[in-house]
């Protein structure tokens, strides 16, 4: 195995980041890990995407409560470009799942994108990818729905169904595009969901 000894050496480009992983909270302390995740990744996102966030008045943001089970709600946030010359313009929709287990939906009578955030399926929230999604919505001219999830189950798929049936509320037109997207854990969820949605009879009316 001596020929693989070099693989135990720390990459010099990664070495400066090692201190970030020291004294991490125990895996079982979920709330503490979520707090640490917010502090690290939300702050990093603000530094990276904050300068790219478009000016106020060029996009619209709305918060939503999606009922996924009787009496059980999850939070979502939609972002869409604002067209002053054509207020009724719609966009493709993207539903987004953030890393760590958050879903983001991008809708509009623009293209619709659903996104799910990352973070190991237990961390992350609506703020994780918020600034990035605002920039993407404006730059690409697409509506986005950012969905916040915790325990997965069938909740992410139900949020997609909610997005499809409420596309007009999100300034989206699914005929222009209906996308699923996510980061890290959210990317895994959307990869699985894309197959589930494809075979769900519910979406047959949204396939054309």
TrEMBL record:
Residue stretches spanning the membrane: 95-116
Chain ranges of the Alpha/beta hydrolase fold-3 domain: 113-200
Pfam families on file: Abhydrolase_3
Superkingdom, natural source: Eukaryota
Protein name, entry field: Alpha/beta hydrolase fold-3 domain-containing protein
Keywords on record: Membrane, Transmembrane, Transmembrane helix
């Amino acid at each position: 195995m001596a020929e693989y000894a070099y693989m135990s050496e720390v990459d010099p480009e990664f070495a400066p980041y090692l201190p970030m992983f020291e004294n991490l909270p125990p895996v079982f302390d979920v709330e503490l890990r979520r707090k640490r995740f917010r502090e690290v990744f939300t702050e990093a996102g603000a530094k990276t995407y904050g300068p790219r966030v478009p000016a106020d008045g060029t996009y619209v943001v709305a918060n939503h409560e999606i009922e996924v089970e009787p009496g059980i709600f999850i939070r979502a946030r939609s972002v869409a470009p604002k067209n002053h010359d054509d207020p009724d313009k719609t966009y493709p929709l993207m539903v987004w799942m953030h890393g760590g287990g958050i879903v983001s939906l991008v809708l509009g009578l623009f293209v619709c994108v659903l996104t799910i955030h990352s973070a190991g399926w237990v961390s992350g929230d609506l703020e994780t990818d918020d600034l990035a999604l605002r920039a993407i919505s404006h730059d690409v001219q697409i509506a986005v729905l950012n969905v916040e999830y915790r325990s997965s189950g069938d909740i992410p798929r139900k949020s997609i169904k909610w997005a499809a049936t409420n596309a007009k509320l999100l300034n989206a037109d699914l005929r222009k595009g209906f996308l699923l997207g996510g980061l890290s854990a959210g990317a895994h969820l959307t990869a699985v969901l894309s197959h589930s949605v494809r075979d769900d009879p519910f979406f047959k009316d949204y396939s054309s």
